[in-house]
Design a protein that fits this description.
- The structure is a single chain.
- This protein is an alpha/beta fold.
- It has helices at 26-65, 72-91, 98-122, 129-145, 151-170, 176-219, 229-245, 260-267, 269-287, 311-327, 357-373; strands at 250-257, 294-299, 302-308, 342-349, 379-382, 394-397.
- Strands 2-3-1-4-5-6 form a 6-stranded mixed sheet, with helices on both faces.
- A hairpin with a 2-residue loop joins strand 2 (294-299) and strand 3.
- The longest helix has 44 residues, at 176-219.
């Protein structure tokens, strides 16, 4: 995804063009990170077990093959720094701690682990140094591919490790020929590992956008962009459960485009499709005011909105009617107005007694029928007891059946 809002080609996932390793949309970036990190957690736990085995394995092989008085300090770095870092990171992969603490901690632990490897290399005898320095390459690839770090975080960790090694070389702790050769090898390892890490994260981000696009295709109406009927039923279930738990009323708005068949007959189906798109956008903007609110295409020229709350629904109904009127879409075949209009039926149910989606829709349908019977281009509300202030243009149906 580029940093500018470039036009997208048909069939291309939104934001995939000129993809960089961060989405400009902060919500999209947050969703990607949550999704990716949750999927990576099992692999990270396995990788940390491998890291633990590696630290202990090198401890054994060092004392076996590199016996000498200079093993004391390497053991301090190994058992005082690297081993605790690995154990702490293993604890932070537990489900309770992982999402909040793992990423900040690993971005501190990885550079410390790398610096510890450099300090161990500095303590090696000259003839042992090439063997010990080879661990830096393992650490570099480990940072890029095994710890669930982003490319930028892994690159920072490796640059700090290279910087620590170069500092040791400049201070005379490492022989110049060995230092030059090791730094060049480490530089090449970072080029290869960095390129692979970048490509992997790029691919993960493209795959994430593709999954979102497929999900949108499956859950949204292809013409209007509103939720389709199947997705409506799924989201409505969650909304009603939340509202019931919080003891909140739920309102349903049924919205019907007046004389839409006549519009299609007069202007053609292409114009009718364009009209539906514009009306759907206006309805979504006017009706959806809270994250839990749902707006969907109910069928044909009929839309539905499900809102948590009561008084706001009455204002939303009149807002929807005005928003469609303000589009100013000419409708020469209408017997109501010379422009396109909608009729809106509203119902509200409260916790206690019959409290269901089916009842709310049934009552909204009754109110919609009443709005049409009054001449269309108006709103009607089914028995809104204690509804508070009622916007002009909204009829209250008392004891309708």
């Amino acid at each position: 995804m580029g940093s500018s809002k470039a036009e997208e080609t048909p069939g291309e996932p939104r934001g995939a063009r000129r993809l960089q390793l961060r989405f400009p949309d902060t919500d999209l970036e947050r969703q990607f990170l949550l999704s990716y990190r949750a999927a990576a957690r099992p692999w990270i736990r396995v990788s940390l077990v491998v890291a633990l085995s590696t630290v202990l394995g090198f401890a054994v092989i060092d004392h076996w093959l590199l016996v000498g008085p200079r093993l004391v300090r390497p053991d301090i770095w190994r058992f005082g720094l690297q081993l605790p870092a690995v154990l702490i990171m293993m604890v932070l992969t537990s489900p309770r701690l992982y999402q909040r603490w793992y990423q900040p901690a690993i971005q501190a632990a990885a550079p410390l682990f790398g610096v510890g490897t450099v300090l161990m290399a500095v303590e090696a005898l000259p003839e042992q140094l090439p063997l010990v320095a080879a661990r830096l390459i393992l650490a570099a690839f480990y940072f890029y591919f095994m710890l669930g770090m982003s490319f930028n975080a892994a690159l920072r960790s490796n640059l700090l490790m290279i910087g620590a090694y170069a500092t040791a070389a400049l201070s005379g702790e490492i022989a110049t020929p060995v230092a030059i050769y090791s730094l060049f090898v480490l530089f090449c390892a970072n080029l290869i590992g960095g390129a692979g890490c970048y490509a992997l994260e790029y691919a993960n981000r493209v795959a994430f956008l593709e999954r979102r696009r497929l999900a949108e295709v499956a859950t949204h109406d292809g013409l209007t962009g509103l939720l389709n009927r199947a997705a409506l039923e799924e989201q409505a279930r969650s909304l009603w459960q939340h509202a019931q738990a919080a003891r909140l009323p739920v309102s349903v708005l049924l919205i019907d485009i007046d004389h839409f068949k006549t519009y299609n007959d007069r202007y053609g189906h292409q114009a009718g499709d364009h009209c539906l798109k514009e009306v759907a956008t206006a309805i979504r903007t006017a009706a959806r005011r809270r994250p839990l609110d749902v707006v969907a295409r109910y069928g044909g020229e009929e839309m539905i909105a499900i809102l948590v709350g009561r008084d706001a629904a009455l204002a939303a109904a009149e807002g929807v009617r005005r928003a469609v009127t303000d589009l100013g879409i000419a409708h020469g075949g209408s017997t109501t107005r010379p422009y396109l209009t909608v009729s809106v039926g509203v119902s509200t149910v409260v916790p206690g007694g019959e409290y269901s989606h089916e009842l709310a829709v049934r009552q909204a349908d009754i109110a919609l029928y009443a709005a049409k019977a009054r001449g269309r281009d108006n709103c009607a509300c089914h028995d809104p007891a204690a509804a508070g202030s009622v916007p002009a243009g909204v009829e209250l149906l008392k004891n309708a059946s």
